[in-house]
Fold each of these.
Amino acid sequence: MDKLIVTAAIQGAELTKEKTPHLPVTPEEVAQEAFQAWRAGASIIHLHVRDDQGQPTQDPKYYKLNMEAIERAGCRAVIQVSTGGAVGMSLETRMGPLRLRPEYSSLNTGTVNFGEDVFINSKQMMESLAAVMQESGIKPEFEVYEEGHVHSALALVKKGLVTGRLNFNFVLGVPGAMSPSPGNLMHLCQAIPPEANWTVSGIGRHQLILGGMAVFMGGNVRVGFEDNIYYSRGVLAKTNAELVARMVRIAKEAGREIASPEEARSILGLPPRS
Ligand code: KMH
Ligand code: ZN
């Protein structure tokens, strides 16, 4: 098995301080969370950012501020920007962070019910995002909430809009989307090409259960507040690092080593750093 890649999704777009006071919002808070998550073993930070009012934004100006703060804090993890943004944002808005030419980005590959909302990702939107990423040398990670999204991702590959190593993130447990059962995870793993990489993002308490499965199955794991704010039943996690550290302990018990950011780059086929 490859070494385990742990992604920390430290903020998300929909979460508020009312839901957890530990949510990092300012660039300094984000940088501290990212640094601690990296120290605990995360090799990727999945990044959303907020504006001066604490609202989710895809403005590259704020992404730059946050990325510089993360760098200043000494965090050496790979930064994966979000092109999902927050539900309801336009395609143009969502593309914002790609202007900074990050090395890694999410690419959502299908429309899905998202709690009370609908998260829209039409074929035309996916193709536009994939084309911009390809032109800019940015590696996509396919965000999959339903099995059909695997097929949409593979259609992008067939069209030549995504080349090289394929990386999937199975997000299981969003209300209205595919449920977070072990069977569904197994099913999705069988739906992707055997040589592709996969990671799993279980929502809520399923973060631990599906993450544990991935450790033993040879997949990778995403943890963090974006998907889950609790450490255990009724107990809020105080930091994203706590959630990373627990997954690292499980991996070590399973005899799986943890990938450094450099090792993650090589496993995921990220473009060489200039
Ligand atoms: N905020 C969600 C609607 C991504 O980052 O690409 C979408 C999301 C996915 O968070
Ligand atoms: Zn996200």
Amino acid sequence: MARTALVTGGTRGIGASISKELKAAGYQVAATFAGNEEAAAAFTAETGIHTYKWNVASYDESKAGIEKVEAELGPIDTVVANAGITRDAPFHKMTPEQWNEVIGTNLTGVFNTIHPIWPGMRERKFGRVIVISSINGQKGQFAQANYAATKAGDLGIVKSLAQEGARYGITANAICPGYIATEMVMAVPEKVRDSIIAQIPTGRLGEPEEIARCVRFLADEDAAFLNGSTISANGGQFFV
Ligand code: CAA
């Protein structure tokens, strides 16, 4: 039977590529979105991938949404916690709202996404947990104290779950994308973006598909011995 994968933020940007890659690999895919109904409808029309609307920052919405996905598609054995937002500002200008929004989506949202799925993975003795962190969780970034804090925190979640899940056949791994050609990066002022590209030895932004292929690799049953690891896919911009 086809495995079922949940991809949060799975209708746009890196998440859309991940959803498509997993579908091409034979998974049943549920892709979530927070608000952009139009983009989600267009995505389903184009790909045939099921979409579900909920806010990952809400535990109750996440739990109810996951129950619906499991009732319709079957138990989720692969979860890709990808949904993320930015609210960039230099620290002296960062508001508590900007801090809390990013923490709610990028950090608490990862808890909310994995926690309701975890008991089923333990029972079935199989699971693949993949968290999309960021290069900026590894190195920090000007104007991203909030975002960098969440992405570093995500690595802590992964390393802890790797230890807890191992005896149940569950792996937990992270991917730290560098700067990828998505709306999020295109929203960075052009001058700043150009200066960032100048720091990437590969000399270009990454493509969302390059991250999706990392997810496919980690999700495979054959990747059972990769646990607690971080794949840095950043064109050589930063080495850990
Ligand atoms: N390093 C050093 N200085 C920087 C800088 C950087 N990366 N970015 C901006 N600055 C400087 C500016 O040159 C400017 O300096 P001056 O005052 O001397 O001209 C100053 O900081 C900006 O100060 P402002 O008070 O004008 O800043 P602002 O309130 O207008 O905010 C900003 C502007 C939000 C910082 C904007 O520059 C920005 O968006 N920067 C990009 C931040 C970034 O890289 N975000 C990553 C988004 S992509 C992502 O997050 C995906 C991923 O995982 C990789």
